[in-house]
Amino acid sequence: MGLGIYSGLDRCAANYAPLTPISFLARAADVFPDHSAIVDAATGQTWRETADRCRNLAAALCQLGAAEGRTVSILAPNVPAMMEAHFAVPMTGAVLNTINTRLDARAVAYILDHGESTILLVDPECAPLASEALSLAQASPVIIDLPDAEFPGVAIGTADWDTLAKTEAVFTPIVPADEFAPIALSYTSGTTGAPKGVVTHHRGAYLNAVSNVLAWDLGHHPRYLWTLPMFHCNGWCFPWTLAAVGGTAICLRRVREDAIFKALREDAVTHFCAAPIVLSMLANAHETLRTGLTGTVRVMPAAATPPAALHPRMEAMVVDITLVYVLTETFGPSVVAAPQPGWGDLTPAARASVMARQGVRYPLQEGVMIADPTTKTPVPADGATIGEIFMRGNIVMMGYLKDRDATETALDGGWFATGDLGVMHPDGYLQIRDRSKDIIISGGENISSIEIEDVLYTHPDVVTAAVVARPDPRWGESPCAFVELRADARADAAALIAHCRANMAHFKIPRHIVFGPIPKTSTGKIQKFALRARAATEG
Amino acid sequence: MGLGIYSGLDRCAANYAPLTPISFLARAADVFPDHSAIVDAATGQTWRETADRCRNLAAALCQLGAAEGRTVSILAPNVPAMMEAHFAVPMTGAVLNTINTRLDARAVAYILDHGESTILLVDPECAPLASEALSLAQASPVIIDLPDAEFPGVAIGTADWDTLAKTEAVFTPIVPADEFAPIALSYTSGTTGAPKGVVTHHRGAYLNAVSNVLAWDLGHHPRYLWTLPMFHCNGWCFPWTLAAVGGTAICLRRVREDAIFKALREDAVTHFCAAPIVLSMLANAHETLRTGLTGTVRVMPAAATPPAALHPRMEAMVVDITLVYVLTETFGPSVVAAPQPGWGDLTPAARASVMARQGVRYPLQEGVMIADPTTKTPVPADGATIGEIFMRGNIVMMGYLKDRDATETALDGGWFATGDLGVMHPDGYLQIRDRSKDIIISGGENISSIEIEDVLYTHPDVVTAAVVARPDPRWGESPCAFVELRADARADAAALIAHCRANMAHFKIPRHIVFGPIPKTSTGKIQKFALRARAATEG
User: Fold this and answer.
1) Residues 6 or more apart from B65 whose CB is under 8 A from it?
2) Contacts of A182 in chain B (CB under 8 A)
3) Could you report the per-residue pLDDT of B299-357, keeping only the tens digit for each?
4) Segments making up each domain of chain A, as ranges
5) Which residue, A159, A256, A168, A243, is CA-closest to A205?
6) Are B411 and A31 a contacting pair at CB < 8 A?
7) Residue from the list B16, B116, B411 with its beta carbon closest to the beta carbon of A12
8) Which residues in chain B touch residue A340, judged by CB atoms under 8 angstroms apart?
């Protein structure tokens, strides 16, 4: 058809700027220069100071080799330097690779090699891990220490972050000509297999940073507590979100219950994100730790496995919960349990039930569906038919680094295949039923391990529950439950099975219950592959 | 440099979707299907119903000739059909041309011809105007009536909006392959000269719709009252904003003080935008109309000429005000008086003073500066040096339709030249001093007419004030003030001049004061060109 009379009105420097979250830092520095940007136990800095430091840092990183197409890695907990790296590194055109600090040296070496790191930023607490990893790696990146008053530690680098930040430089951020350019490289902390390097882009980081504001009704100047690791999917884009709304990042080196409760009481925290394991820890914390909370704190937990029973316990703690479904491939949250007007009138149990569903697509994501994995035909919205969860839109990764096959498989046919299974409810809210590999097929019936876990969580003695398939000579597979009990618990296997019998179809009741500690990944994900191995042998 | 190891991870249908505000309608229908979308005095509809109707309408419009590169015009007040047109027309790929209903037939005919309208949508109240315009125009668009229970009127078209909306159709929205594609054509209601056709794009409409949420902290499910005409710069993108946040559009055929106060009292209105003239009307409304207001209503006035004195008057009416600076070329608001933490502690007068400045760049706009018009060097941020206001970023128009010269002039050198003059304060907040042509040059000194108007507005007897240049044999030009007084006012020219003498440098004091009605455009802009003519002859 063509643009007819509208032809010839082209984009130019006045009316087109690539979308990149580094714009948010520039605006925060211009508009809220004196507002607190980043604080930790020892210090604090404003948005103007943060922008000045990041400009100097970006200039220095360029001198040390950072550039378009290159990787700058960082090994650090949630310290101020980690926030700064989320701006300073993209400002050089390079790709920010945050590394999970709880990995072992071999895994870190793999990442440094696979991502071909040019520069590695190291927090003193991570220096021993970094040194060991570097001794194993082929890569030999320039090392920069991230000194921290709270944890003096050992310097292993040839340069020092704070010195670089204070060295005045003239520098203009290198904005990618194409906004669909790589901004971050995050290796999935998957529960099995070799890690894959998820490459995300400036456009999606910008849009998801904004989407976080819309999804959460974040408001102006939130005081955001960092319990979610920033090395986990760039803290779901919240470093950039905080710049967009002139918020304050309250950094926390160690995610411990006493430190969190202290911050909630003393730092006027308004919001935090958390893995389910953190919420569980808080809900089960000793009464003395939980006293003195006043204002409502809003929490966004990433609930790949929603512990529905936590809601009432958490809500009693002046906490307001918004569940999200998080995948590294979708820049973090891509589905949110958006509350409907009217949910406030439900009974607590009914409200917990609707709020325990992962929900609807994120505000600026284009599409989410539950569909047949092969035909990509959506399943009926009946809350029962299980299909694979697919997503599409601007908040989907570029692909997996150096893995064309995996990229093509994941992004085939116009949709990103999440590998997760779920159902669509009649009101358009989706609920996860399982990772594809976690579904239990018993006597030809699909059994959702999450559904069984949800029931187990409603038993007052259960702290953690994980259900996996166990080979069964008669049924093919049968559910095996691993359970951690509260310290003063009195329930035994018979009691839990009775509880299940009262709350689910009989063919779904776990045939075995194993008590004891459950292995988890660094991000709190339960390591089902390990449980499956145990179930097969000892269950 | 190249992308190195990151090469080859390309955009595809799974990870890239053109940004267009029609996505917001699809999401609102999916996520908040049963939530009230549009209401007026007679009726109401949900977001699902709105999406269904718009799908049917878009299918019908395509049949009637709507397509990429073509123009669909609409002559209507703020009725539900006007909201629907903001989705149904872009869904066809065509460009939506909202026409100011207060123009005369000749001006409407000019727009239909210049924009080469394929289809014209006509509200019954505008049918006489449309008929007369069509008799003058070369263009012969297909006419579609927009029937309305509130105003039965005359049908002049060959089709009927409501019938088309109810005719079930299978239709997939035509999303532009390039998001930098035209979405709307708005003729500037300039105070002088031939109207120019401002062409805006899908990308900017999407981003500014979101920017409205961030700037205003709009929250979920606002109840938004339409006093700002949607024919004025697409209601500053708020039809799309409301879909993005699942809000409710409360339509108002006539912007009268009784209807507005009734809506504020009875419809739980949370937000509205307004021309300054509307705020002035409300602030000066009779006491009996203003009774019964309870909750705080948030107002975003477009203040090209900020009547600073209105603030205290308005704030007494449980109204919370956020000033914005609006230009058609920037999709509406592009600068906002973002409140700083700490402003709440100021005295009312000091707060009114800081809040009367237009402010800082809109959240998703890239840049704003006050600079020398020729060199584009920023002026000092001293609150005194006058320069031209420039903007750049994704919330700037594609250009002026069929006017390459004006487009190139406006978008030259990487910045959009607004033609407005202002100063930059030390805290980074800009304040408009004048349209370039409204500045008064007296004895070699630049005098801001707005500064004089602001002082006049602080006099309790003044309802409206407008200052223009008057030829002066000695000084070249001198300020001449036109003033509308309150009905029970007692001030005379001497009293107002004494008031000015007490509040400004003496060379700025108006030498002439003329009392009586002041001519305004349909959008409430004072017609300074008419006042200048009067000042030259009778002032």
Assistant:
1) B118, B119, B142
2) 3, 6, 9
3) 898 865 455 556 566 666 777 888 898 899 999 999 999 988 888 889 877 887 888 78
4) 48-175, 215-436, 439-537
5) A243
6) no
7) B411
8) 32, 35
CB-CB contact of B501 with B488 (8 Å): no
- B255 pLDDT higher than 70: yes
pTM for the full predicted model: 0.88
In one letter, which amino acid is B336?
V
| Class of the domain covering A48-175 | alpha beta
Q: CATH assignment of B324-341+358-393+416-437, given 2.30.38, 2.40.50, 2.60.120, 2.30.29?
A: 2.30.38
B17·A392 Cβ contact <8 A: yes
CB contact under 8 A, B414 and A14: yes
Question: How many other C-beta atoms can be found within 10 angstroms of the C-beta atom of residue B259?
Answer: 15
- Read off the amino acid at residue A528: K
According to the 3-state scheme, what is the secondary structure of A440-494? EEECCEEECHHHHHHHHHCCCCEEEEEEEEEEECCCEEEEEEEEEECCCCCCCHH
Say whether B27 and A363 touch across the interface (CB within 8 A): yes
Indicate the CATH number of B47-202 among 3.40.640.10, 3.40.50.970, 3.40.50.980, 3.20.20.140.
3.40.50.980
A285-307, pLDDT tens digit by residue? 887 887 777 778 898 988 654 55
The highest-level CATH class for domain A215-436 is alpha beta
- How far is B223 from chain A, CA to nearest CA, in Å? 13
In CATH terms, is domain A439-537 a member of 3.60.150.10?
Answer: no
The predicted complex's ipTM stands at: 0.87
Chain A CB contacts of B406 below 8 Å: none
State residue A191's pLDDT score.
45
| pLDDT at residue B191, rounded to an integer | 45
Measured between beta carbons, the chain B residues lying within 8 angstroms of A343 are none
Interchain contact, A17 vs B181, CB within 8 Å: no
- Sequence-distant (6+) residues with CB within 8 A of A175 are A17, A18, A20, A22
Q: What is the pLDDT of residues B184-220, one digit of tens each?
A: 999 985 444 578 999 999 999 999 999 999 999 898 9
